[in-house]
Amino acid sequence: MSLALADVTLTYPDGDARLTALDRVSLRVPAGTTTAVIGPSGSGKSSLLAVAATLITPDSGTVLVAGTDTAGLGRAGTTALRREKIGIVFQQPNLIASLTAAEQLQVIAHLAGGSRRAGRTRAAELLAAVGLTGQADRRPHQLSGGQRQRVNIARALMNDPAVLLVDEPTSALDHERGAAIVELVTDLTRQRGTATVLVTHDREHLHRVDAVAEMIDGRLRLPTPERRAAFLGDPHPA
């Protein structure tokens, strides 16, 4: 399973004209790999995630999620596809204050129509996978920022998605906790076979991902070995 975008163009109204957010963007992310998307604010990174998540329909181009062409699915079809095949890790965890860490996950299983027993079992397994076995009964205010982000990641994996979309997971964390979160995402990607897109401003962690793509003015490009080495601070690219 993988994520594939081909010649995707997305525009927004801008007065009497149209503003191009994505300009013939193509990207393929194989299962079990993480691609980081970097670029300045306003370059189109958020629009790319929104299109990949089926939250926005592009003007043109093709979006394939785990082999399914999203064109023509309609609102009900895209909602079902997101629920079954796509996990989204938002920049802010947005956890429900009254629910424990385990309950944050269990409600996702409930919304998908799963049994309570299966939801409890799955939640416990995922909390263990993100290192939070001992925090299952804690509510958000009892967790650190890094722990809340781990719950956020576990929640996105609750329905065993084929595609994982991660938006700036380190923005509110210090360097050490940020590194741990990126390492966790890449490790889980390999273990669970997801096709993961990681949008980030933090270039210090790019050595952990499988591929890097750079978004500039709505266009996505793969950096040359020299440019990627510059991102990583390596003066001697392979």
Task: List descriptors.
single chain; 238 residues; alpha/beta; Rossmann fold; six-stranded mixed beta sheet; four-stranded antiparallel beta sheet; 7 helices; 35% helix; 26% strand; Putative ABC transport system ATP-binding protein; ATP hydrolysis activity
Q: Could you outline the blueprint of secondary structure elements for this entry?
A:
Layout: E1 3-14, E2 17-29, E3 33-38, H1 45-52, E4 60-65, E5 68-69, H2 74-85, E6 86-89, H3 101-111, H4 116-129, H5 145-156, E7 163-167, H6 175-192, E8 195-199, E9 211-216, E10 219-221, H7 225-232
Parallel strand pairs: 3-8, 3-9, 6-7, 7-8
Antiparallel strand pairs: 1-2, 1-4, 4-5, 9-10
Helix pairs in contact: 3-4, 3-5, 4-5, 5-6
